[in-house]
Amino acid sequence: MLNYIWIGLILVGLFVAVGNDVTDEVRNTYRNGEVLEGTLQIQKSPSELRGSWEGELLVPKGTFNDFYGGARTDADVRLHASIAEGMDSARAILIPVSDATPRWWREMAKSGASKERLTGSVVGLQFNEDRTAARVRFTLEPVRFVKLKAITQAALDYAGTAVTIAFGLIGIMALWLGVMKVAEEAGLLLVLTRALTPVTRRLFPDVPPDHPAVGAMIMNIAANMLGLSNAATPMGLKAMEELNKLNPKVGTATNAMVTFLAINTGGLILIPATAIAVRAAAGSSNPGIIIGTSIVGAGCATIVGVVASKVLQRLPGYRKAMEVSHE
Amino acid sequence: MSDFFRALINIISVVAIPLMFLIFLGWGLVKKVKVYEVFVEGAKDGFNVAIRIIPYLVAMLVAIGIFRASGALELMIAVLGPATNLIGMPPETLAMALMRPLSGSGSLGIMTELMKVHGPDSLIGIMASTMYGSSETTFYVLAVYFGAVGVKNTRHAVPTGLLADLAGMLAAVWICNLLF
Fold first, then answer.
1. Are residues B137 and B157 in the same domain?
2. Which of B43, B57, B149 shows the shortest C-beta gap to A166?
3. Same domain, yes or no: B57 and B33
4. CA distance B28 to A54
5. Which residues 284-323 in chain A show a CB within 8 A of chain B?
6. What are the distances in angstroms from CA A319 to CA A208, A234, A291, A322, B62?
7. Chain B nearest CA to A140, separation (Å)
8. Are residues B116 and B143 in the same domain?
């Protein structure tokens, strides 16, 4: 099934991206080639050293939203900009992207040649009498294939992210695997395992009750519940390795592995610290109010997950995948 | 009551790791385990496990990245949006429910955004944060855990994980509507 989900994510992504880009092109969402008008409060005029006007570009909110056909900004657009004189008296406008840049323009800049600024050509420049301000009429560089560029960038970025995540795991993996090994040699995991045997025997009937996998799984689940994700992942991976030692068909998931992951992805956690922190940061009067509701939600997810893993493992297709061929 | 519970859990989370070091390594010492040697022996595997995950994680994250960047999620929300009202789910939280199993950072972003727009103590804010706390990033967990042991045929793990996510999201909608 993961095969289909995986290719499904990619294909749906590609088709939707192409569809969005074609729609944008037909509707001319980014107003390619159309003229936008604004005023430039000139702060610096051209001199011998500098061949450009610099100042603050103002495009009123109404003009901006009318131009792009929708609520693209909720304030007047005021941005630093410069107009440079090129050859044949062609003038170019440069608008560096800053925090004040409306999101719409930031998206457009992302798919341009330079991600740090918007560029365009100036069609008309009319100065007032004392040359402190000018009306600028300009067309921005055409923006095309926004989504296709975005998915290309996302694919490259995420491939890098995967490696960053894996590298980040090396240290804590080594730390916890070392500690776990000491606990195992000292027989501590066995004590823990025996205490919970009545539960684990039912959850994981295929795993011998005294197997090291059981101890590692208990540790992982306990760490997850306490919100110690740094410790939980190494213990979980240790548990997977131990479970894999019992796997008659390496490369295929066993029933115990799927049940274990169902508990794990259920995400039962006593204090959802991240969500609480975000709520507190957003100014909630009671950030911790979601503790109870989260436990209910995650509890349901975990129970349904465990039951689903037990029911689905009986389906003929999934059973067959586990059979070892004797040839 | 809830404050006491929270304080207790907070204390436990703070002391848990130092305590684990103390108990695990101390117990080893009592049982005359050569703690240093055994620790190093176990830690050796850390590198290999982390490296082994890379191809699985690249495959999974790239697919999710393409899906997210394409705008497919917005399309799904437009299609499914009208149906969510039937179960008492504000359509705004649909993005959260769909993103949660796919991406941890993505769903964190959606939660933050929803709270900024609607306020953390609105029904939408509470529901979004409950949803965030009600599930793990299923596809990430599957990629990492199965990657570590080289499992390619995941059998019923994906349907199981998705059913659990669905249950978690529906339960979050139900309990929030009931209480708030």
1. yes
2. B57
3. no
4. 70
5. 284-294, 296-305, 308-309, 312-313, 315, 318, 321-322
6. 20, 29, 38, 5, 30
7. 23
8. yes
Q: Which residues make beta-bridge pairs with A125?
A: A136
Q: pLDDT digits over B102-113, tens only?
A: 988 889 989 998
ipTM above 0.85, yes or no: yes
Residue B98 sits in the same domain as residue B122: yes
Number of neighbouring beta carbons within 10 Å of residue B43: 19
The CA distance from A174 to A216, in Å, is 15
* Residue B175 DSSP code: H
Structure tokens at B40: 């190093």
Q: How confident is the model at residue A139 (pLDDT cuts 50, 70, 90)?
A: very high
Rounded-to-integer distance, Cα A117 and Cα A104, Å? 13
- Whether residue B68 is found in the same domain as residue B81: yes
Q: Is residue B85 located within the same domain as residue B122?
A: yes
Both B35 and B91 in one domain: the answer is no
Chain B contacts of A273, Cβ < 8 Å? Answer: 13
Residue of A nearest to B69 (CA): A151
DSSP helix/strand/coil, A279: helix
Token couple for B17 = 């790791």
B98 & B88 share domain: yes
Domain that holds residue B118: 45-179
Return the C-alpha torsion angle A78, A82, A87, A91, nearest 10: 20
Number of other CB atoms surrounding residue A56 within 10 Å: 15
